[in-house]
């Protein structure tokens, strides 16, 4: 199929189906994934390199935009102390569930590690949309959920970098190799911090005075791509660099003016990110899902329960009551970001097969459908309980 036609069909289907799911109360991500599934069934009989390349750019811009727009360091500092315990409990429980499940079904340790990391993250984008829709973003559990989800994504990015490095070694690392992994991460982070504090502010002061059109927007995109490449130079994955680059640019006022943010969002969420999610759906092997029903069901159940129970326990520890803790646990269940990047990286490197890949994509779909329903039910139950208590003093 002609390259231009491929891009047209992908974007058209992704946007039309995304709009349909948005109008029915679900995330547009579902529509984009289903667009890819439809493409795989009816339109395309092979894996075009163009589609794969655009999907890789989609993953880069998804993570860059998350760091650039959604991670606010000031808010992280103010809520971080209370959010750290729920974040740890949900990550530990979800990670353990994924790793143990992989071993039970006789997958290799590396496969189980990738599955465990995919179990661990919460989708910031889906969570924010749900909280805004239910007018719950500024509530105590809502603000705690958002901060915890940001920590989740940051932890997921670094866990991804570690398991990718382990995958390249093809065995569990020795102590010296673990030190090497962390040294690379530390040196990369230090280099990015120096760029963010010393170089980029001066660069954008100069760019702001340039006469060419869209100079600030252009250099934001240039730095996004440079950050992705720079991470690969340290043998880390490109999405890690993109995420860190986004966070660093978010601290530079000139680089984050509203007009530029809007254009970056348009490029990311309007073009590249839908292609990434469509590619996820395109590469799902539906026949594998039919033949691995027990494993698939357990992946869905354990991934959701790991987050629900871990979030509930952690939020109870930091002082939330049972109803708010339940709301918190349900709120951190949706997946649709880091975990899809994780399994895509794992599959592209030949580490995980169709069985794990397709099961986790199904888990993402179920989490996006189920989480808003359960959250609405839990919020309504809490409000009814509060009304009953106030009417019966």
Automatic annotation (TrEMBL):
<feature type="transmembrane region" description="Helical">
    <location>
        <begin position="266"/>
        <end position="282"/>
    </location>
</feature>
<feature type="transmembrane region" description="Helical">
    <location>
        <begin position="144"/>
        <end position="166"/>
    </location>
</feature>
<keyword id="KW-1133">Transmembrane helix</keyword>
<dbReference type="GO" id="GO:0006814">
    <property type="term" value="P:sodium ion transport"/>
</dbReference>
<dbReference type="GO" id="GO:0016020">
    <property type="term" value="C:membrane"/>
</dbReference>
<feature type="transmembrane region" description="Helical">
    <location>
        <begin position="178"/>
        <end position="200"/>
    </location>
</feature>
<feature type="transmembrane region" description="Helical">
    <location>
        <begin position="294"/>
        <end position="314"/>
    </location>
</feature>
<keyword id="KW-0050">Antiport</keyword>
<dbReference type="GO" id="GO:1902600">
    <property type="term" value="P:proton transmembrane transport"/>
</dbReference>
<keyword id="KW-0472">Membrane</keyword>
<protein>
    <submittedName>
        <fullName>Sodium/hydrogen exchanger</fullName>
    </submittedName>
</protein>
<dbReference type="Pfam" id="PF00999">
    <property type="entry name" value="Na_H_Exchanger"/>
</dbReference>
<dbReference type="GO" id="GO:0015297">
    <property type="term" value="F:antiporter activity"/>
</dbReference>
<feature type="transmembrane region" description="Helical">
    <location>
        <begin position="326"/>
        <end position="344"/>
    </location>
</feature>
<keyword id="KW-0739">Sodium transport</keyword>
<keyword id="KW-0812">Transmembrane</keyword>
<feature type="transmembrane region" description="Helical">
    <location>
        <begin position="356"/>
        <end position="375"/>
    </location>
</feature>
<feature type="transmembrane region" description="Helical">
    <location>
        <begin position="212"/>
        <end position="230"/>
    </location>
</feature>
<dbReference type="InterPro" id="IPR006153">
    <property type="entry name" value="Cation/H_exchanger_TM"/>
</dbReference>
<keyword id="KW-0813">Transport</keyword>
<feature type="transmembrane region" description="Helical">
    <location>
        <begin position="83"/>
        <end position="107"/>
    </location>
</feature>
<feature type="domain" description="Cation/H+ exchanger transmembrane">
    <location>
        <begin position="9"/>
        <end position="377"/>
    </location>
</feature>
<keyword id="KW-0915">Sodium</keyword>
<feature type="transmembrane region" description="Helical">
    <location>
        <begin position="113"/>
        <end position="132"/>
    </location>
</feature>
<keyword id="KW-0406">Ion transport</keyword>
<dbReference type="InterPro" id="IPR038770">
    <property type="entry name" value="Na+/solute_symporter_sf"/>
</dbReference>
């Amino acid at each position: 199929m002609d390259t231009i036609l491929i891009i047209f069909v992908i974007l058209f289907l992704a946007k039309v189906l995304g709009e349909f799911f948005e109008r029915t109360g679900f995330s547009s991500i579902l529509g984009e994934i289903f667009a890819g599934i439809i493409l795989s069934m009816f339109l395309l009989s092979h894996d075009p390199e163009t589609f794969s390349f655009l999907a890789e750019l989609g993953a880069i811009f998804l993570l860059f935009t998350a760091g650039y727009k959604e991670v606010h360091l000031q808010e992280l500092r103010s809520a971080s102390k209370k959010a750290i315990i729920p974040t740890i409990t949900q990550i530990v429980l979800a990670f353990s569930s994924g790793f143990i499940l992989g071993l039970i079904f006789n997958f290799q340790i590396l496969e189980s590690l990738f599955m465990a990391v995919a179990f661990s993250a919460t989708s910031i984008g889906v969570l924010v949309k749900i909280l805004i829709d239910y007018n719950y973003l500024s509530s105590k559990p809502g603000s705690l959920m958002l901060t915890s989800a940001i920590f989740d994504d940051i932890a997921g990015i670094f866990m991804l970098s570690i398991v990718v490095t382990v995958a390249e070694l093809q065995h569990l690392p020795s102590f010296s190799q673990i030190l090497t992994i962390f040294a690379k991460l530390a040196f990369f982070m230090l280099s990015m911090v120096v760029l963010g504090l010393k170089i980029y502010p001066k660069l954008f002061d100069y760019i702001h005075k340039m006469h060419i059109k869209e100079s600030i927007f252009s250099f934001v995109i240039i730095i996004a791509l440079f950050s992705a490449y720079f991470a690969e130079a340290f043998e880390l994955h490109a999405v890690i660099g993109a995420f860190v680059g986004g966070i660093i640019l978010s601290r530079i006022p000139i680089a984050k003016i509203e007009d530029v943010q809007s254009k970056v969002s348009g490029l990311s969420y309007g073009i590249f990110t839908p292609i990434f999610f469509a590619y996820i759906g395109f590469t799902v092997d539906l026949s594998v899902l039919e033949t691995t029903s027990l494993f698939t069901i357990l992946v869905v159940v354990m991934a959701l329960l790991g987050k629900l129970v871990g979030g509930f326990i952690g939020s109870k520890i930091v002082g939330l009551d049972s109803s708010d803790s339940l709301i918190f646990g349900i709120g951190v269940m949706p997946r649709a970001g880091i975990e899809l990047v994780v399994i895509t990286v794992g599959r592209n490197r030949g580490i995980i097969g169709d069985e794990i890949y397709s099961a986790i994509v199904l888990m993402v779909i179920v989490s996006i459908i189920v989480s808003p329903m359960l959250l609405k039910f839990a919020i309504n139950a809490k409000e009814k309980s509060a009304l009953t208590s106030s009417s019966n003093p």
